[in-house]
Fold this sequence. Notes:
It is a single chain. The protein is mostly helical. Helices cover 73% and strands 0% of the residues. The protein has a single domain, classed as Cytochrome c/b562 (Four Helix Bundle (Hemerythrin (Met), subunit A), Up-down Bundle), CATH 1.20.120.10. The protein contains five helices and no strands. It starts with a helix and ends in a 5-residue tail after the last helix.
Amino acid sequence: MAAVIGLGAAIGVAQDKEAIIKERRDTMKRQGDDFKAIADFIKGEGGVDQATALAKAQDLLTIAPKIPSLFPAGTSLADFPGKTGAKPDIWKEPDKFKAVIPVLEGEEHKLVDAIKSGDKAAIGAQLGATGKNGCGACHTPFREKLT
Protein backbone atom coordinates (compact mmCIF):
# COMPACT_ATOMS: atom_id res chain seq x y z
CA MET A 1 0.00 0.00 0.00
CA ALA A 2 2.80 2.43 0.90
CA ALA A 3 4.46 1.72 -2.47
CA VAL A 4 1.24 2.61 -4.28
CA ILE A 5 0.91 5.87 -2.33
CA GLY A 6 4.57 6.67 -3.01
CA LEU A 7 4.11 6.01 -6.72
CA GLY A 8 1.01 8.16 -6.75
CA ALA A 9 2.88 10.98 -5.07
CA ALA A 10 5.75 10.69 -7.57
CA ILE A 11 3.30 10.84 -10.48
CA GLY A 12 1.64 13.88 -8.91
CA VAL A 13 4.99 15.66 -8.56
CA ALA A 14 5.87 14.88 -12.20
CA GLN A 15 2.49 16.20 -13.32
CA ASP A 16 3.00 19.35 -11.25
CA LYS A 17 6.41 19.87 -12.84
CA GLU A 18 4.93 19.31 -16.29
CA ALA A 19 2.28 21.90 -15.46
CA ILE A 20 5.00 24.35 -14.41
CA ILE A 21 6.88 23.71 -17.65
CA LYS A 22 3.68 24.36 -19.59
CA GLU A 23 3.10 27.58 -17.64
CA ARG A 24 6.71 28.60 -18.30
CA ARG A 25 6.38 27.95 -22.03
CA ASP A 26 3.04 29.79 -22.15
CA THR A 27 4.61 32.74 -20.32
CA MET A 28 7.52 32.89 -22.77
CA LYS A 29 5.03 32.72 -25.66
CA ARG A 30 3.14 35.62 -24.07
CA GLN A 31 6.38 37.61 -23.96
CA GLY A 32 6.93 36.78 -27.62
CA ASP A 33 3.41 37.96 -28.45
CA ASP A 34 4.08 41.21 -26.58
CA PHE A 35 7.31 41.73 -28.54
CA LYS A 36 5.51 41.01 -31.81
CA ALA A 37 2.79 43.56 -31.05
CA ILE A 38 5.41 46.22 -30.29
CA ALA A 39 7.25 45.35 -33.50
CA ASP A 40 3.96 45.61 -35.40
CA PHE A 41 3.44 49.10 -33.93
CA ILE A 42 6.89 50.13 -35.14
CA LYS A 43 6.16 48.79 -38.64
CA GLY A 44 2.63 50.19 -38.70
CA GLU A 45 1.15 46.73 -39.11
CA GLY A 46 -1.61 44.75 -37.49
CA GLY A 47 -3.55 47.80 -36.35
CA VAL A 48 -1.41 48.13 -33.21
CA ASP A 49 -1.50 51.66 -31.84
CA GLN A 50 0.83 53.34 -29.37
CA ALA A 51 -1.46 52.65 -26.40
CA THR A 52 -1.52 48.93 -27.20
CA ALA A 53 2.26 48.83 -27.66
CA LEU A 54 2.64 50.55 -24.29
CA ALA A 55 0.29 48.05 -22.64
CA LYS A 56 2.31 45.18 -24.11
CA ALA A 57 5.58 46.66 -22.77
CA GLN A 58 3.98 47.11 -19.36
CA ASP A 59 2.83 43.48 -19.53
CA LEU A 60 6.46 42.49 -20.04
CA LEU A 61 7.29 44.31 -16.81
CA THR A 62 4.68 42.29 -14.91
CA ILE A 63 6.13 39.02 -16.20
CA ALA A 64 9.83 39.62 -15.49
CA PRO A 65 9.78 39.29 -11.68
CA LYS A 66 7.79 36.04 -11.94
CA ILE A 67 10.32 34.30 -14.18
CA PRO A 68 12.50 32.72 -11.44
CA SER A 69 9.44 31.05 -9.90
CA LEU A 70 8.81 29.32 -13.23
CA PHE A 71 12.08 27.42 -12.90
CA PRO A 72 11.82 25.14 -9.86
CA ALA A 73 14.42 22.42 -9.46
CA GLY A 74 13.71 19.28 -11.41
CA THR A 75 12.32 21.02 -14.51
CA SER A 76 15.40 21.09 -16.73
CA LEU A 77 15.83 19.51 -20.13
CA ALA A 78 17.67 16.69 -18.37
CA ASP A 79 14.52 16.00 -16.33
CA PHE A 80 12.03 16.49 -19.18
CA PRO A 81 13.83 15.97 -22.51
CA GLY A 82 11.97 17.40 -25.47
CA LYS A 83 9.54 19.32 -23.26
CA THR A 84 11.81 22.16 -22.14
CA GLY A 85 15.02 23.81 -23.24
CA ALA A 86 15.99 24.89 -19.73
CA LYS A 87 19.61 23.88 -19.23
CA PRO A 88 20.65 22.38 -15.88
CA ASP A 89 23.07 25.34 -15.58
CA ILE A 90 20.12 27.38 -14.27
CA TRP A 91 20.29 25.39 -11.04
CA LYS A 92 24.09 25.10 -11.04
CA GLU A 93 24.44 28.90 -11.28
CA PRO A 94 21.26 30.24 -9.66
CA ASP A 95 22.75 33.63 -8.76
CA LYS A 96 23.85 34.21 -12.35
CA PHE A 97 20.39 33.13 -13.55
CA LYS A 98 18.56 35.44 -11.12
CA ALA A 99 20.91 38.35 -11.94
CA VAL A 100 19.41 38.50 -15.42
CA ILE A 101 16.03 39.66 -14.12
CA PRO A 102 17.08 43.20 -13.06
CA VAL A 103 18.85 43.61 -16.41
CA LEU A 104 15.70 42.51 -18.24
CA GLU A 105 13.55 44.85 -16.15
CA GLY A 106 15.91 47.76 -16.82
CA GLU A 107 15.68 47.18 -20.56
CA GLU A 108 11.90 46.86 -20.36
CA HIS A 109 11.64 50.16 -18.47
CA LYS A 110 13.66 51.80 -21.24
CA LEU A 111 11.28 50.22 -23.75
CA VAL A 112 8.28 51.69 -21.94
CA ASP A 113 9.95 55.12 -22.03
CA ALA A 114 10.74 54.78 -25.74
CA ILE A 115 7.15 53.84 -26.53
CA LYS A 116 5.87 56.79 -24.51
CA SER A 117 8.10 59.05 -26.64
CA GLY A 118 6.43 57.81 -29.82
CA ASP A 119 9.77 57.80 -31.65
CA LYS A 120 9.56 54.58 -33.66
CA ALA A 121 13.29 54.52 -34.41
CA ALA A 122 14.05 54.75 -30.69
CA ILE A 123 11.43 52.10 -29.94
CA GLY A 124 12.94 49.77 -32.54
CA ALA A 125 16.44 50.26 -31.15
CA GLN A 126 15.25 49.62 -27.60
CA LEU A 127 13.18 46.61 -28.63
CA GLY A 128 16.37 45.16 -30.11
CA ALA A 129 18.36 46.02 -26.98
CA THR A 130 15.70 44.43 -24.78
CA GLY A 131 15.85 41.24 -26.80
CA LYS A 132 19.63 41.13 -26.87
CA ASN A 133 20.53 42.36 -23.37
CA GLY A 134 17.45 41.12 -21.52
CA CYS A 135 16.07 37.98 -23.15
CA GLY A 136 19.38 37.02 -24.71
CA ALA A 137 21.20 37.32 -21.39
CA CYS A 138 19.17 34.35 -20.22
CA HIS A 139 18.52 32.43 -23.43
CA THR A 140 22.15 32.36 -24.53
CA PRO A 141 23.65 30.67 -21.44
CA PHE A 142 20.58 28.95 -20.01
CA ARG A 143 18.42 27.75 -22.90
CA GLU A 144 18.79 25.08 -25.50
CA LYS A 145 16.50 25.48 -28.46
CA LEU A 146 14.02 22.65 -28.83
CA THR A 147 13.95 20.94 -32.20
